[in-house]
Amino acid sequence: MSSTSLKLLQPGDSVMLKRNLDHPAWKIQGPYDEYSGAHTLVPDPNIKEVLGTATIIERRDIPGTNTGWRDRKEQSLVRLPNNFWYDLATGLQDGSGSTLIELS
């Protein structure tokens, strides 16, 4: 998915809400790894990836600052009815990354 197309989203647009299957929240403990001394995480085959569609209810464009103290990168976010914000540069849920949006 091109992040360029996500950046054009506005309130009222419909998106597909999916789980980010690469996120540890959707993985299970796998076989023991002798090299690292720990169990590996593998995708859980029982997890459904697609959660459904949702309509964007709010968009927020946050300007970046470069003051030398508490710098902030420029960011565009959209909010869905689940009240989570999604970064339009990546499509990932802001702060977590456990779910993501794609154009529907």
Number of strands: 8
| Unreliable stretches | none
User: Quick check: average pLDDT?
Assistant: 91
| Adjacency order of strands in the biggest sheet | 4-1-8
**Secondary structure tally, helices:** 1
Structural class of the secondary elements?
Answer: mainly beta
Distance between the termini: 11 Å
- Net shape: flat
Strand content: 35-45%
Q: How much is the radius of gyration in Å?
A: 17 Å
What characteristics describe this protein?
mainly beta; 104 residues; 3-stranded antiparallel sheet
Short summary:
With 104 residues, the chain is mainly β.
Describe this structure in words.
The protein has 104 residues and is mainly beta. The protein contains one helix and eight strands. The strands form three sheets. A three-stranded antiparallel beta sheet has the order 4-1-8, with no helix packed on it. A hairpin with a 4-residue loop joins β2 and β3. The longest helix is centred in the N-terminal third of the chain and has 4 residues, at 3-6. The model has no long low-confidence stretch (mean pLDDT 91).
Task: Chart the SSEs and their pairings.
Elements lengths: L2 H4 L7 E6 L7 E7 L4 E6 L6 E6 L2 E5 L12 E5 L5 E3 L11 E5 L1
Antiparallel strand pairs: 1-4, 1-8, 2-3, 5-6, 6-7
